[in-house]
Write the structure tokens for this entry.
Amino acid sequence: MISSSESLQNLIRELSGLPGIGNKSAARLAYYLADAPKEKVKLLVDSINKVSKNIKRCKVCFTFSDDDVCGICSDDRRDKTKIMVVENERDMLAYENIGEYKGVYHVLGGALSPLLGIGPNELKIKELMARLSDNIDEVIIATNSSIEGETTATYIAKLIKPLNIKVTRIASGVPVGGDIENVDDVTLMRAYNGRQMI
Ligand code: ZN
């Protein structure tokens, strides 16, 4: 897309490199920003800078965090005997948004995929196993219902079984092949409440 200004042109190029933003949306956003109040743009730029500078991974659950340990892991009101295993922080956010789950999480950083060369060492599986102690009552595996998500769930369940810790899998309701982050709250709540032993 050709713009009358080089700086706008650069902004459009950067924006169109973001996930889910095509050339047209990038141009619309860039023109909006060009015309927006300077203070509003500054707030946006500052918050992007802050994320880029400060964000790290929680050293317990591996979700994004401003501190070494995230707000959920360090919250005394959360039930530390339950760990929900998710593929990424967007899935974690989807579960947080329904407000039903009071335990803690573990973010794997993806799912097993031999095709893409993602094996157990590429995911935070060792780190999950290191968290499992006598104090853990249940591990809820909430990976996606794609082939990769199911393979990951089975793999982790097998590792945990000998430890005599209850392992459950979120129930159907999450469509086969569907991404958890795109599932509506009611379906997600049903999937959590209907989880089954595996
Ligand atoms: Zn955490």
